[in-house]
Amino acid sequence: MQPTSSMNKEFLKKWQMGLQIFRPSIDNTSVSERKRAIKLSADVAMASLRKGTTCWSRALIQKTASEDNFLVRQMLSGIKEETLINKKLPKVMCHRKIVRRSKKILMRRKSRSAMEEVAAKAKKLVKRKTQGLRNAVPGGEFMSNNVLLIQETLDYIVSLQTQVNVMRSIVDAAAAGIER
Amino acid sequence: MMMMNGEATEAELFLNCADMSVLERQRAHLNHHHYPGFFSNSSTINGGDIDGFLASAGLDLPAVYGYTTVHGDARISVTPGNITTESGNFKKRKFGCVETETKVCNEKKKMMMMMMNREAAVEEEEEEEKSKVTEQSNKSIMMMKMKNKAKKEQNSCSNDSSKVTKDSQRTDYIHVRARRGQATDSHSIAERARREKISERMKFLQDLVPGCDKITGKAGMLDEIINYVQSLQRQVEFLSMKLATVSPRLDFNIDDIFAKEVVSAPMTNLPNTVMPPHMMVNSGYPHEMVDSGYVHFNPMQQVVASSDPLSCFNNLYSSLGV
């Protein structure tokens, strides 16, 4: 599935709306502040396209709310309540050293064949990668099973693609405008 | 799924289609198309429970079925093994109808479900489909019930080794038939269903992430996916930085927005991808070029812009000292 033009337009609209919030105070800002404004409003615009249906969008909104609460509130303006912004699933905390040690002991007890060892190593590798994916996708730590993780990744990738497309075309247009 | 009343969304557009009729049609189709002995149980249960549901579910279900209708209507005639084509984003469909409906019942990933239905059954034998379709048709009942209570978690769906009873208020069970030559205890069946779900989704990811067709195996694919996600995130960072440098007052004039509408074709960028020719066609160039005054995006320009995505980053890198 590729990003459709309607998604692009919606994203652009919401993003512009977010940027409007910054316009009044824009005159003496530095590049980095502007970049931050652009990026944060783009992120919230991208996440709000999903209207709270996906886990990553909620997590992304929460993250940007922690950086700029005012912006998020203005952009969402009551469509999603504060409760949506503040809700969090409990993260499972595990003490890694202890877990690793107990796993080693368990592995020692089991008698393994060659095939089992290979399979176990492959599983470990996959687990490591899924953990990496959880770190990459916003809110990944809250996705309890892998199926959900992959679904969210799919949606997240599509949304990122829309975001990148729109931003790039704006950049190109702006750059083309300046050259003239 | 939270659909607000005031907003015109895609799903609300679909609401105008006949919702119940889709389900009835699918059920009828399933009844005399497939193995009646096997399915009659579940289909009647489907009938009983779902009707009760639609009465009580109120807003939720119509929106869900709404999503099925556009694609579901065209799919009614599909039998497993037939290939039909459909307008829009989707390619081939070789899938049974019920699975469409049940997948869509998942409140979170509606569109993704469509994609999965499209490709998921390609390699499946009929026996697989048999067990799967019952699982998921009955799962749909469970899922719809869960939706009214717990709106978020879909972990309950993965527990499909239970049996269906006619009383909708107690716990539901699903009749599952194990495949030939495979373990029959409930745990392994559940695990196998989970694994199949995961591999379905991974197939969609293969289409989405460029360069993944040659890679087999979960670890490699996950690697590619992680790299792709991270590269997209980095691109967003750099694009926003570039935009910040380009426009000191954050004013992108409306003509730019017109240009954006012109450039509506997706330009997912990677250095080795060339714009496929059909993408230039569906951008609707001619009339909008007249409108957007000084900003002209013609096909050639677009190709150039997208085939050179990373060079601007190179300049940006050097200028930022990264």
UniProtKB/TrEMBL annotation, chain A:
Its main location: nucleus. This is Transcription factor IBH1-like 1. PANTHER family: TRANSCRIPTION FACTOR IBH1-LIKE 1 (PTHR33124:SF5). Residues 5-66 form the IBH1-like N-terminal domain. The keyword Transferase does not apply. Pfam families: IBH1_N. GO terms for biological process: regulation of DNA-templated transcription. InterPro entries: bHLH_AtIBH1-like (IPR044549), IBH1-like (IPR044660), IBH1_N (IPR059002). Keywords: Nucleus, Transcription, Transcription regulation. The keyword Zinc-finger does not apply. GO terms for cellular component: nucleus. It comes from the Eukaryota. The gene is LOC108820742. It is found in: Nucleus.
TrEMBL record, chain B:
Keywords: DNA-binding, Nucleus, Transcription, Transcription regulation. One of its GO terms (molecular function) is DNA-binding transcription factor activity. It is found in: Nucleus. Residues 182-232 form the BHLH domain. One of its GO terms (cellular component) is nucleus. It comes from the Eukaryota. Residues 149-168 are annotated as: Disordered. InterPro entries: bHLH_dom (IPR011598), bHLH_ZIP_TF (IPR024097), HLH_DNA-bd_sf (IPR036638). CDD domains: bHLH_AtBPE_like. This is Transcription factor bHLH63 isoform X2. It comes from Raphanus sativus (Radish).
